[in-house]
């Protein structure tokens, strides 16, 4: 703020400045006044490697102001619930405890479910349930305002149904 009489500078989603720009449209635009800092997010991904798209290695931890705000966990083909839960317990929990998220968004990739037509990991509804329990714990410990799950992959309807039900049961425990 500030009494200078100048229009606030804004930055759009691409980070480009717009001097003396009119107020952005409210729908579908993420411009923020310069005096307000964008809330940083922590991106965590646990996935099969090697596999598509070939990015997201553990050494990729973010760039510039985002350095240290990316956690990538590689799992070899055939990894199951034990490795899935271990990745969350040993790597995600400490990172999230330090970060203290205000909101948790999960892109639930059910192509990691055993018997999926595409992925070659072997998660079961038990594994998805235990990881949802861990996420619930992070939510409670960080005083986050909410959790949102989004379906992002999976090619066997029965697997999607079983894993989704396991997660929903955990959400109902909150």
Mind explaining what this structure looks like?
The protein is α/β, with parallel strands linked by helices. Helix content is 30%, strand content 18%. The chain is built from three helices and seven strands; from the N terminus they run E-E-E-E-E-H-E-H-E-H. The strands form three sheets. Strands 2-1-3 form a three-stranded antiparallel beta sheet, with no helix packed on it. Strand 1 (10-11) and strand 2 (17-18) form a beta hairpin. Helix 1 runs parallel beside helix 2 (125-142) and helix 2 (125-142) runs parallel beside helix 3.
Number of helices: 3
- Main pleated sheet: 3 strands, antiparallel
What radius of gyration results from the CA coordinates?
A: 19 Å
Q: pLDDT average, as an integer?
A: 82
Give the overall shape, derived from the CA principal axes. globular
* Beta-strand residue percentage: 15-25%
- The helix/strand order is EEEEEHEHEH
Instruction: Return the structural class.
Output: alpha/beta
Q: What is the straight-line distance between the termini?
A: 39 Å
Number of strands: 7
Which spans have pLDDT < 50 for at least 5 consecutive residues? 1-37
Helix content estimate? 25-40%
How are the strands of the biggest sheet laid out side by side?
2-1-3
Could you list some keywords that capture this structure?
alpha/beta, three-stranded antiparallel sheet, globular, single chain, two-stranded parallel ribbon, 18% strand, 30% helix, 174 residues, disordered N terminus
List the helices and strands and how they pair.
Blueprint: E1 10-11, E2 17-18, E3 32-33, E4 43-48, E5 70-75, H1 81-99, E6 104-109, H2 125-142, E7 147-153, H3 157-171
Parallel strand pairs: 4-5, 6-7
Antiparallel strand pairs: 1-2, 1-3
Helix pairs in contact: 1-2, 2-3
């Amino acid at each position: 703020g500030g009494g200078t009489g100048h229009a606030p500078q804004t930055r759009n989603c691409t980070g480009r400045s717009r001097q003396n720009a009119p107020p952005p449209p409210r729908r579908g635009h993420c411009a923020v006044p310069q005096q307000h800092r964008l809330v940083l997010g922590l991106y965590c991904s646990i996935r099969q490697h090697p596999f598509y798209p070939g990015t997201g290695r553990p050494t990729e931890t973010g760039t510039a102001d985002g350095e240290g705000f990316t956690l990538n966990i590689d799992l070899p083909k055939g990894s199951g619930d034990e490795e899935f839960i271990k990745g969350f317990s040993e790597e995600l929990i400490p990172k999230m405890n330090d970060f203290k998220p205000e909101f948790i968004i999960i892109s639930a990739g059910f192509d990691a479910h055993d018997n999926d037509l595409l992925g070659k990991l072997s998660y079961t509804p038990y594994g998805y349930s235990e990881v949802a329990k861990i996420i619930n714990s992070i939510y409670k410990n960080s005083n986050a305002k909410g959790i949102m799950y989004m379906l992002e992959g999976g090619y066997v309807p029965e697997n999607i149904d079983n894993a989704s039900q396991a997660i929903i049961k955990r959400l109902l425990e909150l």
